[in-house]
Amino acid sequence: MSKLKYRRLYAAAATIAVAAATTGTLLLASSPAGAAIPPGTGAGGGKLTPTSLATGTDLSAPTVLTSGGCGTDGADSFLMRLYGHGFSPDGFVILTPTDAGFSTTNPIPGSFGLIWKDAATQAGTVIQAGEYDLRLQCVDTLGTVFTDFTTSVVFSDATHYAFAGFAPPTSPPATSTHPTTTAPHTSAPATTKATTTKPHTTAPATTKVSTTAAHTSAAPTTNASTAAPHTTAANPSTAVDGVDASGNALSDSPALAPGDSVTLSVAGFAPGATVSATLRSTPQSLAPTTADASGAISYNFSVPSTLEAGSHTLTFTAGAVSRVFDFTVSGDPAGTGTDSGGQLSNTGAHVAVAGGIGVLCIVAGGVAVLAGRRRGLLHGRRS
User: Among 117, 120, 153, 247, fewest CB within 10 Å belongs to which?
Assistant: First the structure.
């Protein structure tokens, strides 16, 4: 083998080695475990705080807020991962990468794309009592992690959880109905005894016993009726008022088009509470807002141009209070270039066909002219 061939082989081997080293470096840089992840830039550094459902069950999908922005190191979006029993050591992606609400300086809102139970099912495991970690990670388009915001969540059993720093959820007040049912039963025998033993002299006493029993039974009834609104306060309400860009009141579940702007008026939150906004069906965290002194907000919402046709919701949440705005999107997003049948417009095809026919006509005319000239020349030579 000639020296030239040997030199070519050495050069190829060196090129392959450099490429392998470069690829390994990129993979390590892209891996969350490849390098130390800097803390967040906000106050407290790299912390997550729940903005809704700080305590709940495995059927909950809480929302959180970072202590600061992602910084200017190169991140352009963020995602959220779960770590703990049964989940992958690399974490389970509970929120896919999104730039909705992304900021390099301000706190970023994040929301679960699945409830706890569904996340465990997709990961092939079940929720167990113990501690789980939740991380919101600032990433770029290659998946490189730049900043990490964390918090822990503790399940006291397979169903109930609480974020770090929050008391575990209390048992539901199911026993509150027992005093109500017990009071009538215990008061009835007392009234019967008093009447049977001393029918004449204790008649006033019987009246007193009956009055006391009625008063006692009324107290549990009052407690039960006041408990009902408390337990239902956590359920979402569709009582959201709104007007369109022209000031016209919106109907229930209005039909909107991509690009439409509406102003929504929502009440029932604690004064000064931070209210998160989540757009579904595919969860997107929008910019949060703050309730005024009366616990109300006024929220300007524009339908994204990329939102697909169908039913959607915009959920406002603060603590245990949620309000839901239902709406539908009709038509295709702006700029897709599709007709009513969902196919691409074929107007350009018609123009191309017409142009082609014109070119053929010009070519045929040119051939005819050349043929005529040739015949004239031949005729002239013969004559």
Answer: 247
